[in-house]
Specification:
The strands form three sheets. A six-stranded parallel β-sheet has the order 2-1-3-4-5-6, sandwiched between helices. The chain has a five-stranded parallel β-sheet with strand order 8-7-9-10-11. A two-stranded antiparallel ribbon has the order 12-13. The chain folds into two domains: 225 residues, no CATH class; 212 residues, no CATH class. Helix 5 packs parallel to helix 7 and helix 10 packs parallel to helix 12. With 444 residues, it is α/β, with parallel strands linked by helices. It is globular.
Length: 444
Amino acid sequence: MKVCFIPIDNRPVCYNLAKDIAAIDSDIELFVPPREYLGDLTKCADIDKLFSWLKNVPICDSIIVSLDTLAYGGLIPSRRGEETFEEIRNRISFLKGILKEKKAKIYAFSSIMRISNNNYNEEEKEYWSEYGKKIFKYSFDFHKNGHADLNGIPKEILEDYLSTRKRNFEINKIYLEWQKEGLFETLIFSKDDCAEYGLNVKEALELEALGGYTKTGADEIPLTLLARSFEKDIKVFVEYTEPDCKHLISNYEDVSIEKSVQGQLELGGFKQVQSIDEADLVLLVNNFRDKQGELVMGWETGSKSGENFEVPEKPYAVADVRYANGADNGFVKQLLLNINDNFCGYAGWNTSANTLGSLLAALKVKYKAKKYNDMEFKKLQVVRFLDDWAYQANVRGQIEKPCDISELMKPYEDTLCGIFGYNPKKPVKYIYPWNRKFEIEVVI
């Protein structure tokens, strides 16, 4: 099977993870643009080179495309960029022509511009450092009440923010027209950093009223669409470590963990069943009690870490969402003591949607692989545990800024390589791709 995959940007979870997942099945030939063509925290993607690459890519069965990459230069440039609606519209019209020529099934997603509730401008326009929280409140109040006070936001800044939102929203409506014309096999509008109310939530409702499909999440959606492109019938039974708390809402999301799971299964092309007896696989969700924790923020949760873990008798995969941005230490220690032949994968990174989407993509490829590569599966698991557990839940809290963490990570490497029977040919390297503590790249 030949698949063309255009990521959001060059982060490891957007770029490397797709390749690592596809490598589990040697029958999958994944075409991904050169990494240097993609954007990062401060640089837009080279859109002209991406268009040229896409025009020349071989005939594929499916194309997974992050539309923000080709429209704006990436997810972050979609919020920061100063290009006009007309400039973006002309660019995507050219893209439409290329996609129509490809004669492939196209699985696409475009973001609904987020509204983060903080005063950090690392991924936003410069004025977010002073007015971010105020703009968030304006957005919340306007959606909830139909009006909102400026609350000290300069008029010209609010007008700039709202005009960028309107530009992106109008572009999304164009994609919706393409969907109605039959261009896309699947089109998703993503919403991340959500609250109960907000202009992003309001736009999502408007797109839904026009026939659009919206989904909480962002970075994982291309991976979920990758799973969807593999049309394989897999029946999944979902088991929660805290079944009485599955109605609770995760950090940075606007739906319950149960609805998040259901949405990821549906979008990934899985069938959720109500009886474990009829299931092919068990999705074990390590969820939270009271509220989702986050170790780097010092937010704890009422879950009884690791005490409710039992190894399913069927093939199973683990979505570790007790904490955002990292693993549940107590749970992982119990899990690693019980790894057996039925184990089909682990994830515990960033938001609940991020964890679920990436896990299900790998699960689908592994379970239905035509040419299964066990060493690539083991490599993927070592990378995920080193990132989600060793670094995010442990080592990250021991450092002040990006630095050499090889010695801090070595005990975790030894443990994981021993458990999975995987021996890297060279020392594992750790890179900070965006020169910040938030993410690392595990290079094996």
